[in-house]
Fold each of these.
Amino acid sequence: MGDHTDNISEEINQILRSRLTAVLATQGKEGPWTTLVSFSASEDMTTLWFATSRVTRKFANLNWNSNVSMLMDTRTNSVSDLYSASALTSIGHARELHDTERENALALMKEQHEYLSAFLSSPTVAIIQVNIRKYILVTSFQNVREVTVHD
């Protein structure tokens, strides 16, 4: 990753490795859209992958505008979350994978998300790669730190 401290890198890595789902934000002709997706992250934290059916609004939005953000957080749905939870926003560019790239990402996703095996095996499912441009990590309610990954 770009210029960052080891501490923020460790915090980002911890969130990426401990979360199964993220909120995906896309933009379409009708405006913004958010939805939950299961995701996987590359070891170097520069890439995220998720799967979606090609007949969803999120897929249509990705074809219309490939800029996305994904939010992962550590909240537990308690009052203390306001000060103790962390929220990680990733901002990047999404594209559908094909051929060998698709197969490699699919194998990783099947390993990490066994419960999605049937869904991931469907021929109507697209594997989407998000190349991360920036992470924004918010901790302790107002502590905001940014890390540029790719310019």
Note: Helices lie at 6-18, 57-64, 81-84, 99-112, 117-120.
Amino acid sequence: MGDSIRNLRFAIRSLAHAPSFTLGVIIVLASGIGLAVAVFTIAHAVLRQPLPVTDQDRLVVLWGGTGESVRQLPLEAEHFARYRRQARMLSSVAGVLSATGWPHAVRDGSRPLTLSLAHVTGNFFDVLGSTPAAGRFLRPEDDVPGAGPVAIISTPLLNRAFGGRTDVIGRRLVVPARGLTYTIVGVAPAGLDYPIGADMWVPRVGTQVTEVVPLGRLASGVSAAQAASELRTSFQHESSEQVRQLQATARPLADYIVGDVRPALWMLSGVAALLLAIACINVASLLVIRASRRIRDTAIRRALGAARSLMQSYLHAQIRRDTSRYLTRYIDELGAAPTGVRVKPLKSLWGSLDSRDRITLDLALALAPLEALKYVVVHELCHLRFRDHSPRFWGLVGSLYPEWRDQREWLKTRGHALKAELARLIEPWSEAE
């Protein structure tokens, strides 16, 4: 845990020293992550979020159609009644007058509303196997002549029009077009969107519509194809020649609600994942380039055939240039100065201070991050005041450079590779290489 915290602090400080680079990384990552999160959230809500029903894979919407037309044809009311009684592939059958809600003008007291009404059979919610968010659902006895008009409202409507208050139960809504006043008896759970876009579910009793779209729950061990085949058989027993020619389709309710957007959402999710991967690769490339910027110059020089002495001269010049800046800064703070500075390859040490107060620095520091070089310079300068590694010595180091522990750890873990890289660069190489 301690190493992780130190590495995190070191990374934060390194990024703070390069604000333009940091801003670019943040923008690239934020764009990729933001897009991916937005797309995946939508895709999960549409494709993966389960409906608030029991065994949603067993619920199917059925309709008729011809081979030449994509139109979904409902059943005549009389045909639906017979099919409902005779169906064996379905354990229960409900019906809706339309697969989408119908817009109606509604009054809540003196307040006008425009709501999408869904006319359904009284057992609609029983077939779904859903649980009300508040109150109760429609019952078969609500869908008979003479029954009092009752309604179920959706959770989005509850939040949008009634502020989410559950005391809406018992409230009366007037539908002038039907001349009826419906009493709200329940609230449907969030996520229930069938018929599509419905704000309010009411019994179909008393309507003038003569067509019904069946909604069924598959019997145990029965497939949607078998249910469609049974509906096709029922078409063949009808008196109308046109109806006898119809084909039948049974589609899972979840797929019916999602519709044709499923392939598009999967493709969009894949594109978002690809863009996020590209963003991460770009950031990784920027980090690699930034981390290797000091080794890059030496690699270029070697690729161009630089002589060993020229390579060493370049590294000497680079480390002396960087060291002079730190000496100018810290000598004033420390109140002491070395008699000289030497730079040469060291076998194991990174720096030393001899008896004549002369600092020696390892040439490999020319390949290290500037923060690591700063630590070694501060370390040797503090030896001008304290020759040992006593608590007073480390306290002085910490007062001049608080992040010294991170750099010491960096040199411990990566120093061997750094020294090996220096040896590879400055040792003679053959023409074959």
Note: The longest strand covers residues 111-120.
Amino acid sequence: MEKESKKRKTQVTLTYLHGLGNILESEAEPGALPRGRNNPKVCPLGLYAEQLSGSSFTTPVVKNLRSWLYRIKPSPCHGPYKSLPQTKFAKFLSEFSVPNPQQLRWKPLPLPPQGNKVNFIEGIVSFAGAGSPDVKTGLAIHLYAANASMENLAFYNSDGDLLIGTIDLISVSLT
């Protein structure tokens, strides 16, 4: 006598992540992600849009690695960090300086007073830095406020990584 095998029919519903070219998206709450744009003026469900980049600013756009995060609270809303007791592991750090993990922002420098001419070089103020030019590694953070031309002066930078933002430069021919 042959035994009849019973075939079980199971129906599986497959769902796929939205996205194209291995750029995928997922959401914990349906309708949480904005459709058709990354950073709308108002995000669904009252969320905040933040972009986390994993690429340097010199990477071509097509090779940029980034993630858009939609958070309940913006990341700067954390409270102040508190130091733990000093251990032998990081004891040598206190000999140099104590690192500050707090989020730091600098207000713009005030414009020089009327009648007091301050050019770009005279208006640069150094705020922070790490490393040293002697070992050819590190960085420095500067702000500037200027209200006068560089008349008969020139500024030269051979670093190649100097970024100057929000400045209108007018180049003139010296011939």
Note: The helical segments are 93-96, 120-123.
